[in-house]
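stage 2 :: seqdesign
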């Protein structure tokens, strides 16, 4: 009789943790690039942060935390430990950065942030592994898409709130210099760890109930039907899609301001960028439940088709609301792929390999942090302007076309090698 309230309480704890996580990211990372550029005076070094964070996270998850999670059956423990270590690391990184500032070594202070936050990400990535495995453990194939989608909607809401707070707290860099942003983030990390401690007790209590035995049986069904071929093709197709879809993120921002491009003001840019999040929020809330009804492969394909089409629309008109609408559709495609992709991975991965295989999935999705633009989109645009001598606006538009082509290749691979395979039934 007490099972349902317990499950609701578990979900509320997971939702609150997700909300705080994305509020925190919005507060800390929205203006971090601006602050690093203020300290280091070079674009190249500032763009290193996303790439180094991604590499550190990938190494930590694939070399250590995924294996530890599977071998010792750790889920919540990794999340709690990761959040606690991150809180301590943030404090240490701030002290080092503050000391270098007092010595007027601004470049070194910026470099200490890049290196310190990357080292932090290596250990913090244990929380990502634990969260992915825990969320999959706490759901079934029938409801996973809907629950993940709801949590992603909450994440989007948290990110928007965090971004708004960041604009107030940044204060031309003083929020980082004086430590205000660091201290707020540390407090939120400690709160998140406390929430997961409470959640862990509820989850352990819930796993002894009859309802959770059905989940266990479902996990063994998935494990016995696990197709490594399907999962490998899924990852390969996802790599191509993520690289193609996100390699133009920085190029699009430049195209927005370019006088011969869209030529938008800062206020107009803000409206367009907000449309991306507003488009993604209802998509993340609904696509998961839709995928549970009609199939995750079909829903994911719909999101991928949208990801192919939207870059083609960036140069069709300079009308503000048209561009906002197209970019909003791009946000819908991204969050559909993010939500349904995670749910589909959870269906394919067996319980005893969730740590290791979700580490690979998380690494693929982390390509959207910056490496795609640094290694693909940026060089492709520069090659056209510097080597071929094309006008900047033409080079950027061609890069948008290339993005669509790359995503189309990944979509075709997904359709041929993943969607056509028989989906695992719980």
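stage 2 :: out
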């Amino acid at each position: 009789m007490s099972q349902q309230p317990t499950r609701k309480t578990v979900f509320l704890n997971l939702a609150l943790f997700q909300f705080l996580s994305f509020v925190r990211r919005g507060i800390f990372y929205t203006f971090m690039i601006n602050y690093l550029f203020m300290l280091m005076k070079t674009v190249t070094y500032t763009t290193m942060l996303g790439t180094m964070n991604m590499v550190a996270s990938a190494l930590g998850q694939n070399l250590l935390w995924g294996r530890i999670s599977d071998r010792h059956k750790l889920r919540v423990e990794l999340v709690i430990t990761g959040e606690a270590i991150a809180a301590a690391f943030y404090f240490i990184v701030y002290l080092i950065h503050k000391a270098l500032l007092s010595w007027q070594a601004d470049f070194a202070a910026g470099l200490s942030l890049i290196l310190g936050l990357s080292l932090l990400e290596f250990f913090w990535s244990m929380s990502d592994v634990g969260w992915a495995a825990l969320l999959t453990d706490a759901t079934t194939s029938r409801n996973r898409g809907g629950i993940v989608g709801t949590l992603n909607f909450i994440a989007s809401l948290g990110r928007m709130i965090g971004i708004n707070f960041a604009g107030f707290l940044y204060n031309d860099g003083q929020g980082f210099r004086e430590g205000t942003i660091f201290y707020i983030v540390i407090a939120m990390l400690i709160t998140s760890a406390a929430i997961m401690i409470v959640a862990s007790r509820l989850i352990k209590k819930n796993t002894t109930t009859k309802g959770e035995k059905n989940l266990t049986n479902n996990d063994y069904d998935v494990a016995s039907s696990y197709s490594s071929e399907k999962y490998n093709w899924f990852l390969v197709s996802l790599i191509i899609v993520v690289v193609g879809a996100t390699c133009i993120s920085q190029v699009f921002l430049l195209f927005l301001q370019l006088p011969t491009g869209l030529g938008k003001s800062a206020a107009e840019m803000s409206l367009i960028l907000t449309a991306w999040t507003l488009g993604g929020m209802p998509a993340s809330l609904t696509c998961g439940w839709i995928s549970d009804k009609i199939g995750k492969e079909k829903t994911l394909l719909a999101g991928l088709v949208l990801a192919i089409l939207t870059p083609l629309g960036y140069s069709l008109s300079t009308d503000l609301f048209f561009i906002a609408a197209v970019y909003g559709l791009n946000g819908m495609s991204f969050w559909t792929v993010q939500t349904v992709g995670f749910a589909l991975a959870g269906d394919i991965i067996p319980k005893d390999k969730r740590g290791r295989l979700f580490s690979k999935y998380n690494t693929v999705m982390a390509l959207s942090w910056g490496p795609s633009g640094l290694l693909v989109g940026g060089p492709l645009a520069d090659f056209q302007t510097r080597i071929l001598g094309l006008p900047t606006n033409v080079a950027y538009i061609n890069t948008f076309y290339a993005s669509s082509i790359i995503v189309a290749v990944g979509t075709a691979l997904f359709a041929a090698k993943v969607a056509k395979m028989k989906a695992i039934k719980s």
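stage 3 :: structure notes
- The CA atoms of residues 6 and 410 lie 41 Å apart.
- The first helix runs from residue 3 to 29.
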